[in-house]
Amino acid sequence: MKKGVSFLVTVALMVLVSSLASASDPSPLQDTCVAIDEPKDAVFVNGKFCKDPKLTVAEDFFFSGLDKPGNTSNAVASNVTTVNVEQIKGLNTLGISMARIDFEPYGQNPPHTHPRATEILTVLEGTLYVGFVTSNTENRFISKVLNKGDVFVFPIGLIHFQFNVGKTKAVAIAALSSQNPGVITIANAVFGSDPPINPDVLTRAFQLDKKVVSYLQSRF
After folding, report:
1. 93 CB contacts (<8 Å, ≥6 apart)?
2. Which of 38, 59, 134, 142 is the most exposed place for a label (fewest CB within 10 A)?
3. Boundaries of each Cupin type-1 domain copy (predicted)?
């Protein structure tokens, strides 16, 4: 084999091996997916079993009511109305969902993450202070004050929040890059887990007095 041809073959093989090595599993659509041997015990196929396409109707792709404000009478003075595959069955496998977020004055959508989705948020009414924190070890805080018509992106998996800094109610619409984005509210997960995390763990992790940790756990 000529040297030039041999070199090209070697390069081609390297490219092939590299592409195979970089292959990965598809993103999960639920928190866990335990392998089972019996099909009769199956629960999810790509998030949901699929309806025969011949039997689909308009109602499978329809949701009504996003024009109505959510109930904000709660500790954080906000409400998230989700429109994902649980509300619109036709979203299954399509990789997109949305939500309406209502805020009372000084209400907030507290620090949280979406483990399976990037979020793009548009302010419809009011003024929101928003931000996210990049991953370790940089942990850089990136924030912005948004007004009506402004748009902001929260990268997948990063801790982020929205806070109404105005004296009037605020409304935002968010689009997310998963039919089932998932949400982990940081304070609820850490201090309100079931069963509770051992206070010794949180005392060391947050550098707090154990009594403070116990108090925080009692709040969630």
Report:
1. 46, 47, 50, 179
2. 38
3. 64-214
Each residue of 160-183: pLDDT tens digit?
A: 999 999 999 999 999 999 989 999
What pTM did the predictor assign? 0.82
Read off the DSSP letter of residue 138.
T
Cis check for the bond before 137: say yes or no (omega within 30 of 0).
yes
Secondary structure (H, E, C), 182-216: CCEEHHHHHHCCCCCCCHHHHHHHHCCCHHHHHHH
Task: Tell me the torsion sign for CA atoms 192, 195, 201, 205.
Answer: negative
Which residues line the annotated binding site for oxalate?
109, 114, 119
The annotation places the binding site at 109, 112, 114, 119, 160
The amino acid that residue 220 corresponds to is F
